[in-house]
Design a protein that fits this description.
Layout: H1 3-21, H2 25-46, E1 50-52, H3 64-72, E2 76-82, E3 88-92, E4 99-101, E5 107-109, E6 124-128, E7 131-133, E8 138-139, H4 145-152, E9 159-162, E10 168-169, E11 183-185, E12 190-192
Parallel strand pairs: 1-2, 1-6, 6-9, 7-10, 9-11
Antiparallel strand pairs: 2-3, 4-5, 7-8, 11-12
Helix pairs in contact: 2-3
C-alpha cells in the first residue's frame, strides 16, 4: 500500500472514530432500533437461514438486538472471533452467551470455535465498516480481517456493511487488497450497490 493511501485511510478513520464517539446515547439507541428494522427486512428479503453478523461496540450502529431477535427466530448467526494470525474464527450465537473482549477490544462470544471456513455456507454476511464509498468499496478499521475473509471465499454471498448514514461517502481510499461490499445497511436505509457476488 502506498504511503499516500495509508495516510488517507488513517486520517479518515480518525475523523470517523471521533464522530462516532460524539454521538449521544439516545442517538445510539435510535440507530440500533433502525439497524434491527433494516436487517430484519434484509434477512426476510433473502430468505436467510444462516448468516454472519458481528457484535457491535458501544460506538458502532447497534447490532446486538438484531442478533438476539434473529437467533430467537431460528436463524443460525455466526459471530466473528479474531485470531492472532489475522484470520477469523466463527462461533454460533446462542441466547445468554458470555461475551468477552477480543484481541482488539471487540466484543466476541465465548463458545465453540468453528474455524475460518465455517462462514463459507452462509446466505448473507453482515460486517462492520468505518465508511463505504458509493462504488461499494469499504473502509475498515485497518486490521484486514474482513478483507481477508471476503477475498478467500469462493462464491461469496451478498455482503452488507453496517454504518451510520453520514458514513456513506462518494469514495473511500482503497488499495488492491480491499474488498467491495454488495450493499450498505444504515439506521434508515438499505442500499444495494453491486449485484450479489454469488
Amino acid at each position: 500500500m502506498s504511503d499516500a493511501i495509508a495516510d488517507a485511510k488513517r486520517a479518515l478513520r480518525a475523523e470517523l472514530r471521533e464522530r462516532r464517539q460524539l454521538r449521544s446515547q439516545s442517538a445510539r439507541d435510535a440507530a440500533a432500533l433502525g439497524i434491527r428494522t433494516q436487517l430484519d427486512a434484509l434477512t426476510e428479503r433473502f430468505g436467510v437461514r444462516s448468516m454472519s453478523c458481528f457484535l457491535s461496540t458501544t460506538t458502532e450502529p447497534g447490532t446486538r438486538e438484531f442478533v438476539d431477535a434473529a437467533v430467537a427466530r431460528g436463524i443460525r448467526v455466526l459471530l466473528p472471533i479474531t485470531r492472532a494470525d489475522g484470520l477469523l474464527d466463527w462461533s454460533v450465537a446462542v441466547p445468554g452467551a458470555d461475551i468477552t473482549e477480543g484481541l482488539f477490544g471487540m466484543p466476541e462470544p465465548e463458545g465453540e470455535l468453528l474455524g475460518p471456513i465455517a462462514v463459507g455456507d452462509v446466505d448473507v454476511l453482515v460486517i462492520p465498516a468505518a465508511a463505504v464509498g458509493r462504488d461499494g468499496m469499504r473502509l475498515g478499521w485497518g486490521r484486514g480481517y474482513f478483507d481477508k475473509t471476503l477475498g478467500s471465499m469462493e462464491g461469496c454471498p451478498p455482503v452488507y456493511a453496517v454504518i451510520f448514514d453520514s458514513e456513506i461517502l462518494d469514495e473511500v481510499p482503497s488499495d488492491v487488497h480491499d474488498q467491495p461490499v454488495t450493499g450498505i445497511v444504515t439506521p434508515t436505509q438499505t442500499l444495494d450497490l453491486t449485484p450479489p457476488r454469488r
